[in-house]
Fold this protein.
Amino acid sequence: MQKWIMSGLFFAACAFAVVLMFTLPGKEEVAEENKPTMPVVQLDAAKAEATVKASCITCHGDQLQGGVGPSLQNEGGQHDAEEIYSIVTKGRGQMPSFKEKLAPEEIANVALWLSEKK
């Protein structure tokens, strides 16, 4: 009786392992999730400023001087547009992710705008 139970458990564990191998994301998929791809956009400074005023000044200040969040006045000297896009999309530390609140093109426009602030 115990042999049947042990054989059944072994078979179930093997079947579960096979299912996991085909359903878990691969390294490429995880890397893609961790580093979102920034869409190509034309910089529109007026729209970027409007987006920043609507979404960022609560934490980063009305002049981007900092407050709850860090200063963004010289953000382009610290990060390029792709890095800024990734930070805004995924969030970092206390900063929440904005991928559900802003369109990728809006985030890319803000990232380009902030990357010019050096």
